[in-house]
């Protein structure tokens, strides 16, 4: 045992989305932070949007971990996250304006790649070119996330640590800007960007960010060895994972639980429980296949009900989310990929009042039965969903806090979902507030 460490290390929980994002992870992370001594974001960027409702007050976070809303809890941005320094400072200032203390308990990995203005311009110009060429948009948020990850993989990224060294930063910026300006002007039909405004803006941000830079992986490891419970907060969802999602209609990072270790700088032995967040129905934002999709623009239809009652609009983009029945066949793949220990079902209350409820339990592809989501996007597009139908309920589930308070038909629906996916439902969210939660098995209490 290392000197000065506890003989009783803490227990750690990873929270991941199991669908196409927007499952309600932020509320669950906030709820679990009551039992955690640190919260870590391990991938993605400010293309993620987590909405928290605390005592009726709504707060939207994009880059800062949701645990920041719990007083005194340290929050970490791991090396797997791409950081726009200007957006990060703006988010800090918005939280400070509502009385949340941030700077003394936010720690940013020096290894995070930076998102700079040319990444944003390249991202937007590419989407515009795809649209005009007829190739079709991917559906990115236009925040520069993908181009920043490309620079990371190409080993030319500018990282947070470069902000500490103005001369080094200037040298790297000139080289990288020249490369991206060549693409902007020569291929993407967009205007090149000037060096000096980007440099000056970054140096101003550096002065504020430098006190928050840290060796995040070692801090997490040390805290855990001393007994701290750590919560790893994922962004987006499994079906948007760059390797395991509906490629190419995916995000630019690995959203699955296994990446919590690499994206935070710790070993996989520190990942003790994997909590998968799943809506009681399915949504996605952006382009890509969606086997159970329903039309949302026809009043009186189920899709319109999901869209309006569920308030299905993207936190980051403001775009209306596409909606459909729960896809259990897709959920099964997410359970396998993540090694899910237990599920939290969110937005169960949105199903209240529906006369019947359906769940996709498999597909037919080229006339053959398929019981799990295929990996090829074209195959997914060709899938015909196979549904099971369940009786609905008229009673309200909103705000319930005990399993035995749920209508019998709601319990039967959830029991069947558990049986189909082979993983237990450990939590049910019945509304947006912290208190609107049914707990069956606590992730932090083995």
What is the β-strand count? 19
Could you tell me the radius of gyration in angstroms? 22 Å
Average pLDDT works out at 92
Strand arrangement, largest sheet? 7-6-5-2-8-1-9-14-18-19
Straight-line N-to-C gap? 23 Å
Shape: globular
SSE-based structural type:
alpha/beta
Strand content: 15-25%
Which parts are unreliable, with pLDDT below 50 for 5 consecutive residues or more? 1-6
Largest sheet: 10 strands, mixed
Count of discrete alpha- or pi-helical segments spanning 4 or more residues: 12
Query: How helix-rich are the residues, as a percent range?
Result: 25-40%
List the helices and strands and how they pair.
Elements: E1 12-17, H1 25-32, E2 39-41, E3 50-54, E4 57-61, E5 75-77, H2 85-97, E6 106-109, H3 117-133, H4 145-153, H5 166-186, H6 195-209, E7 213-214, H7 216-225, E8 230-233, H8 259-264, E9 273-279, E10 282-284, E11 293-294, H9 302-309, E12 322-324, E13 326-327, H10 328-338, E14 342-346, E15 356-365, E16 368-370, H11 377-382, E17 384-391, H12 408-421, E18 425-429, E19 437-439
Parallel strand pairs: 1-8, 1-9, 2-5, 2-8, 5-6, 6-7, 9-14, 13-15, 14-18
Antiparallel strand pairs: 3-4, 10-12, 11-12, 15-16, 15-17, 18-19
């Amino acid at each position: 045992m290392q000197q000065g460490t506890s003989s009783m290390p803490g227990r750690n929980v990873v929270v991941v989305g199991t669908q196409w994002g927007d499952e309600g992870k932020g509320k669950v992370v906030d709820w679990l932070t009551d039992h955690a001594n640190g919260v870590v974001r391990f991938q993605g960027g400010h293309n993620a949007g987590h909405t928290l409702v605390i005592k009726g007050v709504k707060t939207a976070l994009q880059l800062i971990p949701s645990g920041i809303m719990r007083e005194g809890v340290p929050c970490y941005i791991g090396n797997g996250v791409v950081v726009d320094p200007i957006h990060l400072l703006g988010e800090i200032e918005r939280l400070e304006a509502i009385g949340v203390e941030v700077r003394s308990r936010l720690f940013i990995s020096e290894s995070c790649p930076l998102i700079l203005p040319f990444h944003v311009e390249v991202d937007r110009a590419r989407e515009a070119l795809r649209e005009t060429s007829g190739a079709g948009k991917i559906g990115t948020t236009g925040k520069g996330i993908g181009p920043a990850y490309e620079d990371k993989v190409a080993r030319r990224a500018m990282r947070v640590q470069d902000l500490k060294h103005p001369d080094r930063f200037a040298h790297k910026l000139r080289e990288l800007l020249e490369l991206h300006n060549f693409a902007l002007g020569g291929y993407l039909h967009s205007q090149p960007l000037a060096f000096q405004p980007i440099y000056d803006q970054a140096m101003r941000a550096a002065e504020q960010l430098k006190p928050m830079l840290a060796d995040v992986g070692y801090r997490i490891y040390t805290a855990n060895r001393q007994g701290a419970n750590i919560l790893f907060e994922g962004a987006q969802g499994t079906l948007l994972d760059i390797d395991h999602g509906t490629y190419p209609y995916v995000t630019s990072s690995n959203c699955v639980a296994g990446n919590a270790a690499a994206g935070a700088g710790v070993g996989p032995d520190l990942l003790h429980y994997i909590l998968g967040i799943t809506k009681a129905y399915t949504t996605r934002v952006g382009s890509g296949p969606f086997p159970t999709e329903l039309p949302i623009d026809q009043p009186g239809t189920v899709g319109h009900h999901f869209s309006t009652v569920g308030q299905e609009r993207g936190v980051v983009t403001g775009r209306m989310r596409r909606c459909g029945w729960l896809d259990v066949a897709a959920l099964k793949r997410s359970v396998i990929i993540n090694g899910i220990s237990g599920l939290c079902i969110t937005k169960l209350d949105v199903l209240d009042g529906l006369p019947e409820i359906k769940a996709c339990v498999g597909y037919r592809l080229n006339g053959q039965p398929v019981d799990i989501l295929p990996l090829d996007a074209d195959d997914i597009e060709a899938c015909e969903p196979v549904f099971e139908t369940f009786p609905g309920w008229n009673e309200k589930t909103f705000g319930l806090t005990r399993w035995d308070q749920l209508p019998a038909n709601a319990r039967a629906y959830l029991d069947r979902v558990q049986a189909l996916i082979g993983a237990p439902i450990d939590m049910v969210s019945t509304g947006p507030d912290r208190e609107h939660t049914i707990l069956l098995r606590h992730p932090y209490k083995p």
